[in-house]
């Protein structure tokens, strides 16, 4: 997870109080070799755990034998 500032034209953004950033969070799922399997961008005010769960649900990670959490 990575919190970053958003551009002024972005439609939605939130505030990450832990990092004091107003913007978005990027969740990236990688394998043991570092290859990217899923990317999800959410508002920064959503908790890290909730964002990771939402990404896994949207990308069907953990629902097949291909992925383990």
Automatic annotation (TrEMBL):
Which parts of the sequence belong to the Transposase IS4-like domain? Answer: 11-57
Entry GO MF terms: DNA binding; transposase activity
Note the coiled coil stretches, chain numbering: none
Record's InterPro entries? Answer: Transposase_11 (IPR002559)
GO annotations under biological process?
DNA transposition
Question: What stretches pass through the bilayer?
Answer: none
A Pfam family found in this protein is DDE_Tnp_1
| Official protein name in the record | Transposase IS4-like domain-containing protein
Species of origin reads: Bacillus thuringiensis
């Amino acid at each position: 997870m990575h919190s970053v500032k958003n551009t002024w034209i972005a439609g939605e953004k939130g505030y990450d109080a832990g990092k004091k950033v107003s913007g978005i969070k990027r969740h990236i799922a990688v394998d043991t070799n570092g290859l990217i399997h899923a990317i999800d961008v959410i508002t920064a005010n959503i908790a890290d755990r909730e964002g990771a769960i939402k990404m896994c649900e949207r990308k069907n990670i953990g629902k097949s034998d291909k992925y383990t959490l």
